[in-house]
From TrEMBL:
<dbReference type="InterPro" id="IPR000340">
    <property type="entry name" value="Dual-sp_phosphatase_cat-dom"/>
</dbReference>
<keyword id="KW-0904">Protein phosphatase</keyword>
<dbReference type="Pfam" id="PF00782">
    <property type="entry name" value="DSPc"/>
</dbReference>
<dbReference type="InterPro" id="IPR029021">
    <property type="entry name" value="Prot-tyrosine_phosphatase-like"/>
</dbReference>
<dbReference type="GO" id="GO:0005634">
    <property type="term" value="C:nucleus"/>
</dbReference>
<dbReference type="GO" id="GO:0009738">
    <property type="term" value="P:abscisic acid-activated signaling pathway"/>
</dbReference>
<dbReference type="GO" id="GO:0033549">
    <property type="term" value="F:MAP kinase phosphatase activity"/>
</dbReference>
<dbReference type="InterPro" id="IPR000387">
    <property type="entry name" value="Tyr_Pase_dom"/>
</dbReference>
<protein>
    <recommendedName>
        <fullName>Tyrosine-protein phosphatase domain-containing protein</fullName>
    </recommendedName>
</protein>
<feature type="domain" description="Tyrosine-protein phosphatase">
    <location>
        <begin position="46"/>
        <end position="182"/>
    </location>
</feature>
<dbReference type="InterPro" id="IPR016130">
    <property type="entry name" value="Tyr_Pase_AS"/>
</dbReference>
<dbReference type="InterPro" id="IPR020422">
    <property type="entry name" value="TYR_PHOSPHATASE_DUAL_dom"/>
</dbReference>
<dbReference type="InterPro" id="IPR044212">
    <property type="entry name" value="IBR5-like"/>
</dbReference>
<keyword id="KW-0378">Hydrolase</keyword>
<dbReference type="GO" id="GO:0009734">
    <property type="term" value="P:auxin-activated signaling pathway"/>
</dbReference>
<feature type="domain" description="Tyrosine specific protein phosphatases">
    <location>
        <begin position="103"/>
        <end position="171"/>
    </location>
</feature>
Amino acid sequence: MRKRERENPCGICGHYHKYEEEEVCGICGHRIPLSSDKSSLQVSAFPSLILPGFLYLGSYDNASRSELLKSQGITHVLNTVPACQNLYKNSFTYHCLQDGKILLFDDAIQFLEQCERDKARVLVHCMSGKNRSPAIVVAFLMKSKGWRLLQSYQWVKERRPSVDIGEAVYQQLQEYEQKLYGSSNSSNLVLLSFQPGGAPLNFGLSEEFTFGAGQTQKNLSENLANPSGSDIPMDNT
């Protein structure tokens, strides 16, 4: 196998095959769709980049592709589902949440903060990458960046549109927001469908609804480019 192929895994299945030459993957059978079915939806094997050079969000399928994770420089994995096995203990540093129902935000955030201090790249995953793991990432953004729930949720949703946080998990996020800030400014309206690339979200609220410390819906989109005044850039890829 040529070095070029080893350095460029398929962006869809994560395995090494000549996908640009329409070669069928010998492991999973993936191929580039024909012109007649190029419109079909395909899920990337790559996890979603949430914070450049640090935080990734994905599914158990993403976490099962060790070579692909290594190609992204990921060295640590936060597993939010006790039933999911930690497959590559000799290659990655794992931390697994032990409760299958209640999300242990403080436990997870402590691990993520240590990864950030160590300048390590970390993948946060659940089974599908849609519910539990996005909630952990949202909670981390609230705690580490000082953002409110709506703001943190929108940041994550923009970078992983498949996020679909359930009502029970979202309620835990509301309770965590209240723990951090003494109140929750968020309603279940945040669970409505997200509109990437469209008009600014108003979540059914008035234009001057306050987000966090004096931030209104009118200027939310402007401030999302740099919500806390930090040097974290927007990832538009």
